[in-house]
Design the sequence.
């Protein structure tokens, strides 16, 4: 019997190249010229051209009239199908709208995917100075933000809490933004995501923070109740600074 450890399974290079191209366009958040795309992914022009032609053929990429490339309709469809797989849209979007209306700030709903947090749904404030969202919907769970903290709470902590925990962070990930987040879970105790309200730090005074927390708690209670989870009761919450915010 061999005592050697099993070799790590190798991926398919052509598939990895295609996915790298898509990841690069997602991160760029704008159309890119072929030469710039080739430099970004460190591929030769003939190699990237073959990949781009295949991706365009299957509608994962779209070539614009000026020769630049952007994500195609198939990529958008995959994202929409991913959202629908959670069966949360009909419950979450009305809550996000109510949070925006009640606070005048932007709101979002994130889920955990391994070591990443993924923004499934988002609504921007109508105010001129507001927290905006880029196309990139994924971030590292180690970034210390309130959303990351809410998604990292353990099942034991959820079970033992007698009040809703609302995490607070300022200037993390994006320097001039502050956020409050609270975990949302099902009746079974399964954590399904985090409800977040985001605003510019210039408006994040102590009094404003308290008003945002009250509104977030109220609408998180409504969403939890809709999903069959425990309600903590009116004003029964505690503000917890994110780890990176503690002096």
Sequence:
């Amino acid at each position: 019997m061999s005592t050697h450890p099993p070799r790590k399974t190798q991926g398919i290079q052509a598939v990895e190249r295609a996915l790298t191209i898509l990841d690069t366009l997602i991160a760029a958040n704008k159309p890119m010229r072929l030469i710039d795309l080739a430099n970004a992914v460190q591929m030769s022009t003939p190699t990237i051209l073959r990949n781009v032609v295949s991706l365009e053929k299957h509608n994962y990429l779209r070539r614009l009239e000026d020769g630049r490339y952007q994500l195609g309709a198939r990529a958008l469809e995959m994202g929409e199908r991913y959202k629908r797989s959670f069966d949360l849209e009909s419950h979450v979007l009305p809550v996000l709208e109510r949070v925006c209306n009640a606070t005048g700030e932007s709101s979002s709903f994130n889920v955990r995917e391994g070591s990443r947090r993924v923004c499934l749904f988002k609504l921007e404030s109508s105010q001129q100075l507001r927290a905006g969202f880029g196309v990139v919907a994924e971030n590292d769970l180690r970034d210390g933000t309130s959303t990351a903290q809410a998604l990292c709470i353990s099942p034991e902590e959820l079970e033992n809490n007698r009040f809703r925990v609302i995490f607070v962070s300022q200037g993390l990930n994006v320097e001039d933004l502050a956020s409050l987040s609270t975990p949302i879970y099902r009746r079974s105790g399964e954590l399904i995501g985090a409800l977040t309200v985001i605003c510019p730090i210039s408006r994040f005074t102590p009094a404003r923070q308290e008003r945002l927390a009250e509104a977030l708690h109220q609408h998180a209670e409504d969403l939890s109740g809709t999903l069959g989870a425990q309600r903590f009761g009116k004003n029964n919450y505690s503000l917890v600074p994110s780890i990176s915010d503690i002096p």
User: Anything to note?
Assistant: Residues 93 and 147 are 17 Å apart (CA to CA). The mean pLDDT is 82. The chain has two domains: 13-76, 87-241.
